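In this section we walk through a basic example: taking a raw amino acid sequence and producing a predicted 3D structure, encoded as discrete structure tokens. The instruction is simple. Fold the sequence below.
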Amino acid sequence: MKRITKDDILMWLKATAKVLMENKNYLTDLDSPIGDADHGINMDRGFKKVMSILPSLDDKDISTILKTTGMSLVNTVGGASGPLYGTFFIEAGKAVVEKIYLSDDDLVSFIDCGLKGILNIGKARVGDKTMVDVIAPALEALKQAFANGKDTIEALHLMVDAAHKGMKDTIPMLAKRGRASYLGERSVGHQDPGATSSYLILRTAYETWDKKI
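The resulting token sequence is shown next.
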């Protein structure tokens, strides 16, 4: 078991902001045929705002960092993404109150509670062509990896593999939630932008912590 510290969380958020900035146009291009062509722009703007407040969180616990990140995204990111991603981080923060590091069990609770928050407000399920199609299988892969005795980094690697598959699996899906659902059959054949940004965020966690812990 590797401990994921408060500093590791801050490093992840900083790296995520960089990755989303680098993929802003890619995410927006994915959103163009099935959404409002603004997903990359919105996510980049939201995490730029997060970066502006991170210096004030250096002395806070993990829960406070996550909940503050979530509120910033709710208030900054446009469309459905703000409430969904914001809720993920807020609910994840509630799962790790007063923690200065995360154990493997805490990491599972972190993602589990974040996902439950998304399900509660978004009402999407696996197969609806949303971010849930990435986060849900990623969580199950993480749980299974720990149950099989994998260490933290190995488990995170398997989580990211499942997230990648979930992202690609959205391509042939018919959208049942969100803006893309209005297109009906025309939504088929396009990779979901929300699933893609979720994958990028999870992949960045693995890549950041693999180097650090």
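Looking at the output, two observations stand out. Residues 193-212 form the longest helix (20 residues). The chain has one domain: 4-212. In the next section we compare this with other chains.
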